[in-house]
Structure formats: structure tokens, C-alpha cells
Amino acid sequence: MNITKLVVKNITRRRGRFVFTLLGITIGIASFVAFLALGGGLKEEVRREAAALGANLVVTPKGSCAYEQVSILTGEQLPSTITMEEVGRVAAIQGLTAVPVLTEKTAIRNRPVGVAGVLPDAMKPFKGWEVRSGEYFANNDERVVVVGAAAAESFGLKPGDEVTIRGTRLPVKGVLKETGSKDDTTLFLALSVTQELFKAPDKASFVAVKVDDLSRTDDYIMKIKETVNAGVVSDKQMLKSVLGIIGTVNVTLQLIAAISVLAAAFGIVNTMMTATYERRREIGILQAIGARRREIFAIFLMESGFYGLLGGICGVAGGLAASVLVGPMVNQNAFLAFVKGNDPAAVLDPKLMVGSVAFSVAVALVAGLYPAWRAARLTPVEAISHE
């Protein structure tokens, strides 16, 4: 008796039931995989943005919460309450390099884009920017725009073009090399020009700070708090806070996906119980020709496991495809604006794929235990006499 052929024949004899049961486990696993892949992509983006910020400490408006910390990483607009006088006091602390940033929003061809007001002379070495085409700011007050690589490509901007910001036409002087961070999607103006255009005189959204001695980070935080009435967070604290928020969201989404998998498991139980009832006579014949209870148990359990294996493979493929396709849509949400789509190479994690298929098989096997036990418990007389 070839058990494998028998298993395949049994589960495909009712094609409609087979397809719908398979779809249940496929959709559940696909949801689970998609949320895992997107969650992993989000965490990598957060770490990359935190590294690209180039700051050991960030001075934020007093009372800022975790959402403001996310906004710093995403380039979203922040309350502009830090004064340049406070920036000067922070910069005067020995052992620190402080660079103020004013974040705003504008639109080009009715599409939103971030604007950052910076001190050009200080920001270029702070971030390690390089110019891809055109030129960089000549001084800290020049009325020009320097564009991130992705923004230049998205809006078709090049040196010599003009953009209108708050009713004022400004020439594009240069395009930065790609950094792999939110800087690529941002328009950069001199801080004084941004303050004028957005009517935020003498204001900044946050201050990025580098320290000379990382071992004294806590001391620097205390000095800044004593010097100005503002919040101070280290890059590690900010990263932990933002990852904590994303982790909570991921757990919630994964629980929703787990419910889908659980519902699919009950679908397998129902299918296998129905098969046990319909194939009583077949079970009796198998017993009559010498099949033992453990072999019958194994046949039904293998059928259930086959659903899990095939559903897991299809679910993994569908989930990874969904994560790649849905990734670019996630950046429509301001909270997750830094996500520019998942890199397929990063999403195709072998551990994720193998683990998801194994999880699918395990769920299916657990779902098939009771039906397989019921089938194995039938006596030859009960099975053969069944009509």
C-alpha cells in the first residue's frame, strides 16, 4: 500500500472542498507572513533613519511624546517652539556640536513634500552630504533649494529649475547624492529663508546634537536640560521608543493574522471530520486487508499535514508578494512616511519562509489529530457495515 499516493488521491477526490480548505490556510499564512515581513521592514527603516540622523542627542520641544520622536525620523512637521537663542545656548556647551532644523511641508504639483530649514555650512559636514549635480549652498542665507535625490527624480527637478514654496519662486541649485534616508525625499532651504517663508521667525523644530565623548552622554543631557527648557533624548532612547511603538502595532497585526490561521485550522478539522464520516467503509476495507490503527491514524494525519504544507507554501508566496506590493502604499500614512517600500531581497528571509511553512504544517497537524484519532478508533465491523 503506497500511503503517499493514497493520501494525495483522498484529499483531491473532492476538488471543491480541497480548494476551499486550502484557500483558508493559504490566506491565513499569507496574512501572517505579510505582517511579519512588513514589520521587519519597518524596523530596518527605523534603524536606518536613526543612523542617518547623525545625532547622538536630539533636543525637542518641552513635553514632546513618542510621536514627535517618530516625526523627527520621518521628517514630518513638528511644533516650532525652540528659539535660536536656546539653540545658541546649547551650542555653547563645550564638547557638543548642535545643528538646528526647522521642518515644514509644501506641495509640488499638488503632491506633498517635506521641507527642512538648515544651517548649510554646519549641516553638510554633520550629515556627510555629497552633491550629485549642481552646487551646494554658497552661504547660510542663500535663497536657493537643494533637493534630495528621490525628490529630484520624483518631481523631475534638476539644477536651474524653479520651485514655488509659499508663493515664492526659488531656483534649484543642486541635487544631493542618495543617502538611503528621508533626506532623499526632502527639499532643503537655508534656515533663515525657511523661517521667513513659513512665518516662524527665530524658531527651530528640533536640534540635532553630536557629542565628543559618548561616555559622557548622560552628563551632556543634564547640562542641556539645565541650560534650556526643552526635552532631550538620546539616539538609543529614541530608537527604543519608536521600535516599541512599531512592535506593539506588529503584535496586534500578527494576532489578527493568527486568528485567520486559527479559523483555517477549524476548516481543516471540519474537512477531515467529514472525510472520516464519508470514508468509513474505505477504512473498514483497509482494516480488513491488514491496515493497523496507527497506519490509518498516519494516513489521516498526513492528509491534514499535506493541507498545511501546500497551504504554507502558497501562503508564504502570497504573503511575500503582498508585502512587496503593499510596502509603497504604507508611506501614505504620515506615521510611517519613511517607508518607501520593502526591498524584496530583505523581505525574502529564508528563516521567515521556512518558519512560516513549518508553522502552517504544525497547525494543520494539530487540527488533524482528533479526526485521525476518530478514524483509527473505528472497528472493522462498524466501518464495513456503514451505509
From TrEMBL:
Q: Residue ranges of the MacB-like periplasmic core domain?
A: 19-225
**Topology in membrane:** Multi-pass membrane protein
Subcellular locations according to the entry: Cell membrane
Membrane-spanning intervals of the chain = 18-38, 255-275, 296-326, 352-373
Could you give one GO CC term from the UniProt record? plasma membrane
User: Which Gene Ontology molecular function entries are recorded, alphabetically?
Assistant: transmembrane transporter activity
> Keywords for this entry?
Cell membrane, Membrane, Transmembrane, Transmembrane helix
Offer one Pfam family short name for this entry. MacB_PCD
Transmembrane as a keyword of this entry, yes or no, is yes
Domain ABC3 transporter permease C-terminal, which positions? 255-380
The cross-references to InterPro entries, in alphabetical order and at most eight, read: ABC3_permease_C, MacB_PCD, Macrolide_Exporter_MacB
Which superkingdom? Bacteria
| The family this protein is said to belong to | Belongs to the ABC-4 integral membrane protein family.
UniProt name for this protein:
ABC transporter permease
Organism annotation: Geobacter soli
